[in-house]
Design goal:
It is built from 15 helices and 15 strands. By secondary structure, the chain is α/β, with parallel strands linked by helices. Helix 7 (about 110-125) links the parallel strand 3 and strand 4 (about 125-130).
Amino acid sequence: MDIEALRADTPGCAHVLHFNNAGASLMPAPVLKAVTDHLQLEARIGGYEAARQAAPELAMLYTGIAAMIGAASDEIAYVENATRGWDMAFYGLPLKPGDRVLTHGAAEYASNYLALLQQARRRGLKIDVVPSDATGQIDVAAMEAMIGPDTRAVLLTHVPTQGGLVNPAEAVGAVAHKHGLFYLLDACQSVGQIKLDVRRIGCHALSGTGRKFLRGPRGTGFLYVARDVLEQIEPPFIDLHAATWTGPDSYELAPGARRFENWESFVAGRIGLARAVAYAGAVGIAAIEARVTALGATLRSALGTLPGVELRDTGARQCGIVTFTKVGETAEAIASRLRARAINISTSTAANARFDLGARGIEAVVRASVHYFNTEAEIARFCEAVEG
């Protein structure tokens, strides 16, 4: 991996020390150019004509994402963001009052759990929160023991937003398959930094975003839905792209996963996402995973030597998201102090991670996420700044 060439493609590296990849990664120059070029084309010839001219590149989005996650192109839908993709799959499940769904509370994303609560109130669903094992990841044995005659689905967040844990998605998939359960995987934080294969994982649906480790534009995402469950999921809403109006009182859903899309979308963003997927593919997802994982381990090791700093990541397997607290200084104060020194990081609070941070009595953590364009020298500079 030619780090200097990748950094040369990342103009933002010259302006800030960027440890905020999980929240809003720096776009590579070719991705930014693809987005701005299309916007300029729209300004010259109009949105409809520009979209027609971009049709071949727009088609690349589906083949690119499919190749990246081991799916078929007709199993991919473009969506506005990972949460909307997750919602389309979850809200479309044929669940009835009394049906039970399993989720790993310690990893679940706040937006996902809010949707669960809403559907529990609206449709009478029951939520079974699976505990963590001794390492902090989902307890797969406990999950299987909780499965009963009314259990219908397993909803898992692969990597939580508030920590570096990587949940054992394949092991969960094996249990879901054994018991005939629908399996929805939130890969928002893992796509682009971890090699994913939906067939090996065994998930029926997977949601992802463009703006994080894929380094694509904000407001872009995708949903994978396996062919063999497509007819079991009714899109919660449709339009003239998702369906065809076949008669005064009839309609027919679009073939494949396109039934989960909207007609109107951010075309420049879709092109940018396609370019970002191609860019990641050219670098190599396996190589990205190896470097991000190694840099994450280096950062944890370095932070672990600082006085007053406590690492907060859990899990037997960890990734490039690194979280910590520091005695005598709040997470937000650290983030503000570092931001003044052109070092960008994020924070996560217990209000959005009640079953994890809240249960551990942690009010908030600093989230410092590395990507492949970061360097060991930047990690050293970062730790010096944290130490203050």
